[in-house]
Amino acid sequence: MAMMKAVGLYRYLPISDPESLLDLEVERPRPQGRDLLVQIQAVSVNPVDTKIRAPKDRVESTPKILGFDAAGIVVETGPDCQWYKPGDEVFYAGSNVRQGTNAEYHLVDERIVGRKPKALSFAEAAALPLTSLTAWEALEDRLGFSLEPGANRGTPLLIIGAAGGVGSVATQLAKRAGFTVIGTASRPETKAWALQHGADHIIDHTRPFRPQLEALGFHDVDAILCLNATDKHWEQMADVIAPQGKICSIVETSTLLNLELLFGKSVTFAWELMFTRPRYQTADMARQRDILNRVADLVDAGEIQSTMTEHLSPINAENLRKAHAKLESGRTIGKIVLSGF
């Protein structure tokens, strides 16, 4: 029985507890069907990792391995694989119904895997999959906009939380597609980051939206991408969205939303969850492979930058606890990446 290193948990504990994430030795998995067995070179952390790990009254009998974003090398393929072979360098965001990427080897369905951008290191590539898929699906699949260059010339798009992981990619994609991008940020360093990645204007999401937008010359906006505190910003979004506009959010709510606020303007509201396709094995599941390959093309053409801002090594429980703690502070810019076992 071949074994491998991994980082996982048995109990759901505060990140300050040394047992919240543990260094483990677990059995190395074998690929079946359309699975790839990937030797993990780098991973990044996302808010979803901390939400899954958050304290709760549950104990796992076998260790739960977290992690979604990964870049690595295919070492073995299942019998039904069509697109990849051993030695291929790949990146992907995984599935929320399988074991995670915080391990030396990881199983992933080839339909949600893209080729690693040649221009990036494994660490730089690992920062991109989950956020790129979320941003692309939100803008194109949920809001219905084309992401071709200049396709939305002058269309005002408000991105709430423009300096975070998804915001950093969404801003780049939207700017390239011709939107007038209004990002929100509340600190000098996050404002600078959002402007650097393509925002045309910045407003402060801790202050009322309308006066700030009107000061910039906008009575309303055609589309809103909400990447932070949906319930907190709901009434303001309903206020500044244009008639027949569209809102997409990626952040679940702790309170019920009053959809009546959108009725008079015939506003469309959509959720975006990157895990929907792999979780439900949808007929169009391979769209995620297509999106990631498109992202890789744009990176290699110099049109999209990696959003890695911090790089830790090696991948172990201590460094993952540090990364989770930083994410939970709510003050992270871009993405934290870990590489090497």
Assigned CATH superfamily of the largest domain: Medium-chain alcohol dehydrogenases, catalytic domain
CATH topology of the largest domain: Quinone Oxidoreductase, Chain A, domain 1
The major beta sheet can be summarized as: 7 strands, mixed
Give start-end ranges of low-pLDDT stretches.
none
Tell me the structural class.
Answer: alpha/beta
Overall shape: it is: globular
In CATH, the architecture of the largest domain is Alpha-Beta Complex
Indicate the radius of gyration in whole angstroms. 20 Å
Q: What would the average pLDDT be, to the nearest integer?
A: 96
DSSP strand content: 25-35%
- Give the termini separation: 20 Å
Helix content: 25-40%
Strand segment count: 16
At the first level of CATH, the class of the largest domain is Alpha Beta
Alpha plus pi helix count: 11
How many domains, in number, for the residues? 2
Protein name: Zinc-type alcohol dehydrogenase-like protein
Keywords: Metal-binding, Oxidoreductase, Zinc
Domain Enoyl reductase (ER): 16-338
Organism: Alicyclobacillus acidocaldarius subsp. acidocaldarius (strain ATCC 27009 / DSM 446 / BCRC 14685 / JCM 5260 / KCTC 1825 / NBRC 15652 / NCIMB 11725 / NRRL B-14509 / 104-IA)
